Sequence to fold (449 residues):
Amino acid sequence: MKHGDLPPRAPRGRTLALLAALGALLLPPPARAQETPEPEEACETGSVLSPGLCLSSGIIVDAFANLRGGLRQGVAAIGQLQFGLQADFDRIAGLTGWSLGASAIAVYGKEPATVLTGSLAPPSNIEALSSVRLMELWVQREVEGFGSLRLGQLAADTEFAVADAAGNLVNGTFGWPVALAEGLPSGGVAYPFAAPGVRLALGAPDQGSGFRLGLFAGDPGGRYGQQTEAQRHNRYGINFSTVGGAFLIGEAVLGGRAPEEGPRPWVVKLGAWYHSGGFDSQRFDADGLSLADPASSGVPRRFHNDYGGYGIGEATLWRGEGQSLAGFTRLFAAPSDRNLVSLQVDVGVAWAGAFGRREDTLSFGVSQARIGRGARGFDQDTEAFSDPFRPVRRHETVLEVNYDIPVGPAHLRPLAQWYINPAAGEPDEASGRGLRDAVLLGMRMQAEF
Fold:
């Protein structure tokens, strides 16, 4: 969608209040005191359906007001219902080490990036087309002391390239980064998509040190036309796409053991990825002419693969009674000739137990996505050949601060985001100029059951 275009209208009907009411009907009721399961039967999250079978559910509602800049001032809200099923086949059928996981979501509302900011990074990490969607569906074999093998419909962003200290940040780029979302087909095998794949974990990457390796179908959107939006093509998550080559990602994790309470003392993650599909040049056609040159064929040079690397560092900077301060940094790099974003740097902190309130968390993060030399060169060529006033895209920078407050069974998270150079300076079709810096205020309501 081009800047200035109005998005498709969400289906008419009830508002997000209806979504919340529907969630209340669908979510399991709290267990009575006399029905509390034995410790060995309890679930980490959710409710026990039967020994070894757990159902979890939750709801998130995000509301944003754009005070200035971006595409337009105004408000937007989006909600998500989440459902998860975990089955321990050891308890159910005596199959030691075998388990099953399934998850689904229902999304309703307007996407803030589409209607407010026009940015590369979405203000909300639950942004997706309004729909009911199957997410992950997998079986896993775990061998104690060795690792695990997971097979099925998987999403890479549930385990790879994650900084735990960034977990409370709402902006999407602090999860699956813009550097990958802008470069990979359909945004990559990440929310709101999953795709057939296999994941091998060795050691204990979540608790200590280890290694993860994932192989996924290359395009989770499936086989769709150039003018077709991937989410509309695979609207319900049941295409089980195997097209678009293959996406391979590996990550080595080194870190201190997790304490009983609070974040790990330190973690270092080094990762790399490779995609075997085809990728267009950001600047040149098949004959070596600039795509902005009137003599160009207009057909981009085609590369037969794409690749990149990343590093993540986290450390507990301070730990006190009921409090801790954790910091994180992430760096993503990819070739600039075939990727819009060739470099992304994220930094931030999370203060758990903020201001002496043991359950509160104050989070702050900054992310800058740098436009690659190829795309910048195309803008400069366009300026020289046809449009002397075209801005050259350089970077998009996002800052977020939020404060998480538990209120009964729910969490409220007031937040503010500041977009510097939204869409990296891509000119708005309506004005021909780059979008102005945007300032958003928002609120997240989240509850798990």
Notes: The CA atoms of residues 212 and 334 lie 20 Å apart. Residues 44-443 form a domain with the Porin fold (CATH 2.40.160.180). The radius of gyration is 22 Å. The mean pLDDT is 90.
